[in-house]
From TrEMBL:
Keywords: Membrane, Transmembrane, Transmembrane helix
Protein name from the UniProt record: Secreted protein
Organism the protein comes from: Streptomyces lividans TK24
Cross-referenced InterPro entries: DUF6479
Compositional bias ranges of the Basic and acidic residues kind: 44-88, 96-105
Pfam families reported for this sequence: DUF6479
UniProt-annotated stretches for the region Disordered: 37-119
Extent of Gly residues compositional bias: 109-119
Transmembrane segments: 16-37
Length: 119
């Protein structure tokens, strides 16, 4: 603090105390206003769903995760160059082999191993 601040803080005028009280009242007013605004917004929200509106388990039991291997559709062959905006969406189909790929015996299965990963 500089000497001017020390003089102001030690001064008998009470100006600093008045400003601190005014600032505290402003902060409290802002907090009360924010609380009132939030409670008004909360009242406008729809109520939570009733028990009969909750989703039900299907008659066949819970639905389980379905796993399938997919493979991309073939690129259309053409004599001209195909531009990206001409391709449209690339689809996929169920793969003919649904067995999960496994690592070869004796290979590390990681990238950057420094070699071909052979035996």
């Amino acid at each position: 603090m500089t000497n001017a601040w020390m003089d102001l803080a030690a001064g008998g005028s009470g100006a600093l105390a008045v400003w601190l009280i005014v600032a505290a009242v402003v902060v409290v007013a802002v907090l009360i206003g924010a609380f009132a605004f939030g409670s008004r917004q909360k009242r406008r929200e729809p109520p939570p769903p009733r028990p009969e509106e909750q989703p039900r388990v299907p008659d066949g039991g819970p639905v389980h995760e379905e796993r399938e291997r997919r493979e991309p559709d073939e690129m259309p062959r053409s004599d001209e160059r195909t531009l990206p905006h001409e391709m449209g969406h690339q689809g996929s189909r169920t793969a003919s082999d649904q067995e999960r790929p496994r690592w070869d015996e004796g290979s590390s299965g990681s990238f950057g191993s420094g070699g071909p990963g052979g035996r």
